[in-house]
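Design a sequence for this backbone.
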């Protein structure tokens, strides 16, 4: 399997897209806010956008090299593209959709079997569920036997319940495809479910690439931390008694073992925040006294908003403590767990 390598520079409406990436056997998810330039990267790879400057190659096969005036049209690039709305042909059956553009007819039969679509071969898209339509779109993309697979917001057309059900299936399918795959999404949970490597795109630039664990443990800046679901508290840092003291805008003082000064973002994840009715006698911890603002169940756990913090506790703990809006509590977390990062 060849590696996809790309370097792109292209002016967009509000900023310049400037991206350099390598994608091998591990699917890569590009995440970030709407309008960050993620879909423009996909369109450039597919040949639907010609960047002002750049180079795109899969192994030794060069698709774009603006310095040498190389720019293969989309039909000469070995790309399988899955659109947000799947773009299935409504007048064709499942089998005919998968066969459209297929290089070999036996491959169509293989995909219908492996994707569990054989019983639906004569059915038209309008009779399919959202998850079934997604499988048809992915099978159609793979029927071309592409060198690169591109997926643009693959769950955008699915409701929340269906979304959860098909994540694992799509992850399995991407791994089985064994080609470089780039998935664009604005949902971090989708990215974690689908890819071992995640690139965070902000205003046309990849600010960090890493595994989900790396992004959580060492976020490059405050934006990456927020995107992974962390609490991000903005303040000013200064050395104090062998630690770093961070004073928030409301005057709250918190401590970290990280060595920084000046404007910073203090990052702490919800599962690192403990709740109690009284502050524990532990000098290594930060304490925030406040009333519960909200209590939101998430599976068998509960997310509790306390002052500037969100804590995540078990449902049993929430019941035992009688957590509900208005109840005063103490939110605590260790100075060793409080990371200080650039504001970003």
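Sequence:
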């Amino acid at each position: 399997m060849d590696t996809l390598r790309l370097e792109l520079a292209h002016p967009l409406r509000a900023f310049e897209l400037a991206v350099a990436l390598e994608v091998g056997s591990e699917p890569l998810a590009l995440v970030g806010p709407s309008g960050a330039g993620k879909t423009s990267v996909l369109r450039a790879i597919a040949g639907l956008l010609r960047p002002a400057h750049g180079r795109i190659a899969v192994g030794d096969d060069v698709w774009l090299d603006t310095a040498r005036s190389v720019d293969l049209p989309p039909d000469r690039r070995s790309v399988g593209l899955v659109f947000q709305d799947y773009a299935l042909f409504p007048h064709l059956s499942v089998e005919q959709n998968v066969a459209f553009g297929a290089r070999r007819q036996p491959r169509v039969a293989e995909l219908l079997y492996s994707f569990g679509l054989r019983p639906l071969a004569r059915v038209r898209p309008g009779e399919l569920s959202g998850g079934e339509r997604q499988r048809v779109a992915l099978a159609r993309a793979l029927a071309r036997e592409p060198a690169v697979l591109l997926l643009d917001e693959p769950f955008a057309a699915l409701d929340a319940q269906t979304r959860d059900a098909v994540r694992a299936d799509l992850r399995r399918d991407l791994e089985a495809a064994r080609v470089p795959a780039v998935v664009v999404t604005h949902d971090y949970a989708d990215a974690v479910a689908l890819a071992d490597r995640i690139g965070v795109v902000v205003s046309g630039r990849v600010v960090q690439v890493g595994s989900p664990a790396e992004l959580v443990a060492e976020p490059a800046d405050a934006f990456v931390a927020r995107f992974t679901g962390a609490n991000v508290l903005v303040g000013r840092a200064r050395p104090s008694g062998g630690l770093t003291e961070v004073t928030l805008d409301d005057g709250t003082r918190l401590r970290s073992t990280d060595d920084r000064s000046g404007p910073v973002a203090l990052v702490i994840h919800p599962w690192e925040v403990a709740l109690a009715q009284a502050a524990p006698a532990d000098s290594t911890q930060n304490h925030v006294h406040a009333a519960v603002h909200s209590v939101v169940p998430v599976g068998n756990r509960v997310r509790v908003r306390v002052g500037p913090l969100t804590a995540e506790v078990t449902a049993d703990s929430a019941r035992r403590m009688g957590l509900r809006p208005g109840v005063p509590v103490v939110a605590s977390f260790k100075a060793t767990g409080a990371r200080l990062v650039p504001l970003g």
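Residues 160-177 form the longest helix (18 residues).
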